[in-house]
Amino acid sequence: MTRQKYSIFSLLRNAVSRNENWQQAWRSPAPRKKYDALIVGGGGHGLATAYYLAKEHGMRNVAVLEKGWIGGGNTGRNTTIVRSNYLWTEAALLYEKSLKLWEGLSRDLNYNVMFSQRGVYNLGHSLQDMRDIERRVGANRLDGIDAEVVTPEQIKAAIPMINTSPRVRYPILGASLQRRGGVARHDAVAWGFARAADALGVDIIQQCEVTGIYRDHGRVTGVETRRGRIEADRVGVVVAGHASVLAGMAGLRLPLESHPLQAYVSEPLKPVLDTVVMSGAVHGYISQSDKGELVIGAGIDAYNGYGQRGSFHTIEHAMQAIIELFPAFSRVRMLRQWGGIVDVSPDACPIIGKTPVQGLYFNCGWGTGGFKATPGSGWAFAHTIARDEPHDLNAPFSLERFTTGALIDEHGAAAVAH
Fold first, then answer.
1. Phi first, then psi: what are they for 290, rounded to 5°?
2. pLDDT bucket at 418, cuts 50 / 70 / 90
């Protein structure tokens, strides 16, 4: 039988089997009474943390507690951009660690996360934009991170559809380009980490919302869930926009604000855009998915909240920006719109580390840059939980920096980064 005939036969056989003989990607065990470590949050960061706890530190008696289903939270509600060209060394090295893990992640997990290094352009529309771009590119190069400044002519040659006319409201004066940046498939990242962690013995427990955190004499002893109490000496909380809610259960107050962040996809098109284009000035960014959809995003909604829809004027503003950059897209119909929840810290950088409660660790405050950091965040957070001390990469991102004043201001480099 030829390979082609075998593939057709296999497809037909599985089509009528109702998936009865398909192996589950991961187990669905009942929670045990006690674990060595609990990871609260079954998104990309939480699953990556559990995976690296098992793989790098030999901790197998670990459970991931997810209030919904794997891939149903912010991991599946972002625009999947991956890059590491941040301004300050502390942030740039953390994101660069993540980017290096991205480059081998499909092989490491034995699961195709569809990481595509198609390059990321950050546009400049004013002299100040270009000064900031040149400064950031110089800083990246000093840190050993690939970055370059490109002219409008180079941008037009690489992206023929983009409008580089000097007579528009926000003319393109140049851009930074990170060629190693790109996109990945968000749900595949969650599924890949979940399957790999499960294979190492980690329990992945869905529909298990945490409703309380137990403490005794200043240290964590476990959590209360919708499925009962679960004890553990170490609890890592990675719940994206709801970090403040979980912190409140432990009597902590975090310097975070939660906002809706919207994204949109168009009807599928033939390949027209083979890179990622971002603009902080006009607050829009765009790429094309492997299915042909234009994936579009904007800045955060100004109000605080946990809604996953967002406001119409933000949609309108983002569409105006994209149409100015790509006039031909004005005839494309939008397919759907959704929102995620981002928790933003005062310096636009995450909190990754210990808390005043012994054995309780938080990974939060990623703002709009969480997806790109998924593997690096999990790798560093796993080190922190396993050894009860931060790795050099995440040591600068401790909670204490908000009292010492050692902030890492990445508002400019974060911009509309996702």
1. -65, -20
2. very low
